[in-house]
Amino acid sequence: MGRTRRSGRTTRPPGGGVVTIDLESEGCTDQPSKHRTCWKHIQALMLARRTRISKQQAEEIESFKLTSPCFLQTIPCRERSKKRFKRNNAVSKLKKELDSVSFNCYMENMWKSFSEDKKMSFAYLDSLWFTMYTEASTGAKVLEWIKRKHIFSKKYVLVPIVRWCHWSLLIFCHFGESLLSENNTPCMLLLDSLEMANPKRLEPDIRKFVWDIYESEGRPEHKHMISQIPLLVPKVPQQRNDVECGSYVLYFINLFVQDAPENFRMEGYPYFMKVNWFSPVGLEHFCEKLESLESDTI
């Protein structure tokens, strides 16, 4: 980013207490303090303003949402009593718009539920990274974080994307294989529960993102070959309203991790990823299970 990074700062939020701002951390912290703040939102605000955080800015941080003004109905990831946890109310939360912090919390809990064998074949990127990559001030930093994921040693890499107030899922398949391979075909999948939103409009940013990842890793593949990696958009189940996209992406991830073929080949496409891949009832059961996982970790 061209600037000296500070390891951390503290400031006082409205109502007292101290907010710990950890700029070295990569994820949503699990610390119990009720004033602990997800560092990515703090950093985004600091980079945008390029100034020290004042008392007024600290107050703004409390309500700051990086993704979009549309995501106002959040699902808090915070400490709460199990006695007050009501399943019916919890299930309804996943039917609302998910902000990035809530999405990441659900994603982390779901990831823990996967077997170690599955985790060996998969990696996933934070849901903010793609958006942050498109910003000039944070793009280089995101590429550094991706290096630590060792994605070229994985069969599949899950890349949740939130753009234009909408969630979709990008999947890198066999990026560590030769681009000329026929057995393990390097390709990309873009799963979108709102086909009418034209998923392909993301393609220019995705192509640039992929090229920069290859280049930052020092890969030998030629740029022309990288630009030819297929970007496939299977016809998957479509959301029933304008707020379910985040839940659909989480369910896409869950089912893909379970059912992904050992070797992704073009002749088998789209495999299980069809318009009747799952039913609304299946999605409902998934949301109940995901909320149960969250309550068990509180």
Automatic annotation (TrEMBL):
Pfam families from the UniProt entry: Peptidase_C48
Keywords annotated in UniProt: Hydrolase, Protease, Thiol protease
UniProt superkingdom: Eukaryota
GO molecular-function terms, A-Z: cysteine-type peptidase activity
Region (Disordered): 1-20
Stretches assigned to the Ubiquitin-like protease family profile domain: 75-256
A biological process from GO: proteolysis
Similarity comment: Belongs to the peptidase C48 family.
PANTHER family membership: CYSTEINE PROTEINASES SUPERFAMILY PROTEIN, UBIQUITIN-LIKE PROTEASE 4-RELATED
UniProt name for this protein: Ubiquitin-like protease family profile domain-containing protein
